[in-house]
Design brief:
Shape: globular
Number of helices: 4
Helix content: 25-40%
Strand order of the largest sheet: 1-4
Structural class: alpha+beta
């Protein structure tokens, strides 16, 4: 019972702090960015705007990380955390391809 009370207290505080924090300030594009606009077009929140040929994060971000993982140049970073990490690359038509089974068609 004691733990439950602590969680009830902490959750509203951390939720409030999360909503008030500027999460987009750590996103940046390195020199490898070629201005292809893939990050801007893939952002579901329309948070990324191209300014002087480089992406800028303006507004609310849901951290879907499509910008980081979709960048073919690996130019999008989030602070120091993503520089040495691999990127998740997904097939363009993965959903459609996975729905079709050539053995049963």
């Amino acid at each position: 019972m004691h733990q439950k009370g602590i969680l009830r207290f902490v959750t509203p505080i951390t939720g409030y702090a999360y909503r008030k924090a500027n999460h987009t300030k750590k996103f940046f594009a390195t020199q490898e960015c070629n201005g292809c606009k893939q990050c801007e077009s893939s952002c579901p929140c329309n948070t990324i705007k191209m300014i002087d040929g480089k992406p800028m994060w303006i507004g609310e971000c849901t951290f879907c990380l499509k910008c980081i993982n979709g960048c073919k140049q690996s130019a999008i970073q989030y602070g120091k955390f993503t520089a040495q990490r691999d990127r998740y690359q997904y097939a363009e038509n993965f959903y459609n391809a996975s729905m079709s089974n050539p053995e049963t068609d």
